User: What shape does this take?
Amino acid sequence: MSKKLGLLGTSAIATAMRQINPDVVAAYPITPQTAIVEEFSQYVFDGDVDTEFLTVESEHSAMSACIGAAAAGARVMTATSSAGLALMWEMLGIASGLRLPVVMTNVNRALSGPINIHCDHSDSMGARDTGWIQIFSENAQEGYDNLIQAVRISEHEDVRLPVMIMIDGFITSHNIEVVEVLDDSDVKDFVKTNKAPFSLLDVKNPITFGPIQLFDFYFETKKQQSDAMRGSLRIIREVSREYEKLSGRKQPIVDMFMMDDAEIAIMVLSSTAGTTRSVVRELRKDGIKAGLIKPRIFRPFPVEDIVKSVKGLKALAVMDRSDSFNGFGGPLFTEVRSSLYESSNKPLIMNYIFGLGGRDVTVENIKEVFDTLQEVARTGKVENLINYLGVRE
Amino acid sequence: MEDVLEIRWHGRGGQGAVTASKLLASAALEEGYYIQAFPEYGAERMGAPVQSFNRISKEPIELHCQVREPEIVLVLDATLLKSIDVCEGIKEGGILIVNTPKTPDEIRKLLNFNGKEIKVYTVDATRISIETMGRAMPNTPMIGALARVTDFLKLDSLLANVKKSLAKRFTEEVVEGNLNAIKKAYEEVKD
Amino acid sequence: MKIEAKEKPKVKEKPGYKSIPIGGVIPKAGSSREYKTGDWRVRYPVIDKEKCINCLFCYIYCPEKCVVVKDGKVERVDLDYCKGCGICATECPKDAIEMKLE
Assistant: This one.
């Protein structure tokens, strides 16, 4: 029997980690992630898990230790935020390039500078091309659910890629919400055991991890990795369906709310989707055909699901909680817009950069976006393609 | 959105505003409500003004923005009334509970409600906590006062839930002191 | 201008991305044996058995470990792997090794 508990977001993640019972966890503290490994280390101390817990001197070392342990065939987890993820950068590509199933929670926090501890997605978006599967969570419940599924996705024989799941810093990590926690035994059965195809510790069959590959093999290895990422969407669907049955909670690739007859919609990741859903309910009471699209999976980029989700829309606002500083909008926006290039009947589209450094996104902010969308849908004209929501002039 | 009860706590670092919102959340959860409890992070210095928030609802809570228009505001330290606007954004017909030996009428004179109809209650939570626990911890008695002036928490189950939450971390003596503080504040709250 | 190759060079077909092990893993030990470095060589060592005192310095210093020793005596150099670096000739205390052009 599952239980409904009031848990901090960090506690929901630590609980999932306890239930998953990984072989190795290597981590370094950073706000707002710290509470996760702090709680998990208590489980290690109390003997609630069999995990080898490694305290290391930096995030670079944490990821290096995870890579070594994963190469040995262990089930490996870690957690980080912001600058910690940035310091891991070199090793992120090695974990994915060596096809090692490391599972990490990234508690989204703005990158410095200026220094800031609050939520935006600049950290994980900065790592979007490092070959990690990326899953975004709206609330503590989704963080818990996504982490459990991440283990199965990551370790699947056709995937063997590292997975990072995201929860919003403070908004989700330091908020107590109701989380339905599965039975320990159900999680144990669901995550099964890691069947690594190779192990560095298998002394009877010595192997080499990470050999040099120059122009003769590197490209083939990378093409293989690219195919694994693309193909992982099929596995993510399978695992999601299986988890739906276990939990009774829907696990869509792209979550849609009121989209059947929607004319205008907001597409947004993570906790802001909740606030947006509330606004959509309000607008529907006034007969406004508004909807919400919330991608759960960002890597691999679910092109087909995205294209399908916007069908029939007149105007779409893609909201990014990070800027690409590319002179052309946020990362979600540019990829969504690119996905729609071939489709006929595509909606008018605009981008909103919002919530940088934890700037609160209010119900009024969301209503303002929907007001603009109504105007765009009516006139058929987008005045400003790239917009900054809630910033002072 | 109207179905979500929003609460704001004002206190000073160290007075237990964050703990109070957590205790309230777990008590409401036991009553079958969906809950949120989150502090405003920033300057966590002893003595600095801090805020903490609750959302309580019969339906799952989707809002993930700050609480801007609370129905209920609780002030753990009356000296804050001079330095910050504790009534900011409070809803028409809202409730203000202040920890002070003063009467609600005296508090009303100190504050500007901008013409809004606000119900003001006072309770001497600091004195109550010193009497029951031997130290100034006004947070738990404030929950007792809240239970009295609203109808979403019943005193009996509140006491049982707080006991359960605190028993994990504190001695029996401390738990008993907190429960007595809640009961006393429940009885003494003035309107 | 049209350039025609006189003879098509023989290249051993390497496996593609559909068949190589994932992550660049080399799934068996000792595969470097298959990589014969002998063709890097411009000069090759010739040992004068008359001068050689079997001190085995060449055996110790050779980075490719291609000096073959049998019963405590230098027997020959494995030219499949000798890169022609000449370290053996430099280290030999009796100048018993000469590097000759291929």
